[in-house]
Design brief:
Shape: globular
Oligomer: single chain
Number of strands: 4
Helix content: 40-55%
Number of helices: 9
Length: 200
């Protein structure tokens, strides 16, 4: 299989973490895609040009981080990072959705900052900073939740990647002044899969 990524995408990082956590490194080749360039050969592989993109052993491609991470997690028939669809655990779903919202907002902020300075929207930047601060406050209050402290899951990975992206390439360190969240993130960032996929 081939997993097409950009090394700065937090969503591609999530899939790369899943590859490591599930022991798939010998089965999934990580390929850095050339995006946002005219006539990139990558567009013949994925016409939308988005990353991440997985081409499976049969040559069938799929896009979307949630789909790809769930697919990789379930390859061995023993998914451990995703909740089964029949599991009506709304508390978990709320945590994962809030972590995804944080990751989405930080990604918007990073993309906006890559635009020429004269084309950036101060309104969009301010909105995403304020939203990230509110969500970080919510996670500071929830850091001891068993769903964030228990066995590794996608909600934890989403939150860790979002917070690490905010700290390294985003608006700020969202754990500053939030000691519970800082302790939580330090524990997650110590995972070999997090260290192996950290931005360089």
């Amino acid at each position: 299989m081939k997993l097409y990524v950009t090394l700065t995408s937090p969503y591609a990082r999530l899939a790369r973490i899943v590859v490591i956590e599930k022991g798939l490194a010998d089965r999934v080749e990580i390929v850095e895609a050339k995006t946002r360039t005219a006539d990139s050969p990558y567009y013949r592989i994925n016409p939308s040009g988005r990353v991440l993109y997985l081409v499976d052993d049969a040559g069938v491609g799929m896009e979307d981080s949630q789909l790809i991470c769930a697919y990789l997690d379930g390859l061995d028939g023993k998914p451990r990072l995703h909740r089964p669809a029949s599991d009506r655990n709304w508390a978990y779903g709320r945590i994962e959705a809030l972590a995804r919202s944080l990751c989405d907002g930080i990604s918007v902020w990073v993309r906006e900052m890559h635009r020429p300075e004269t084309e950036r929207s101060p309104t969009v930047l301010a909105h995403e900073v304020a939203r990230s601060q509110r969500i970080a406050d919510a996670f500071e209050a929830q850091a001891a939740d068993p769903l964030l402290q228990g066995p590794l899951n996608m909600a934890q990975l989403l939150l860790a990647v979002a917070l690490d992206t905010a700290r390294t390439r985003g608006p700020c360190d969202l754990t500053a002044g939030r000691p519970q969240l800082a302790t939580w993130l330090a524990r997650l960032c110590a995972l070999p899969s997090m260290r192996a996929t950290a931005s360089r």
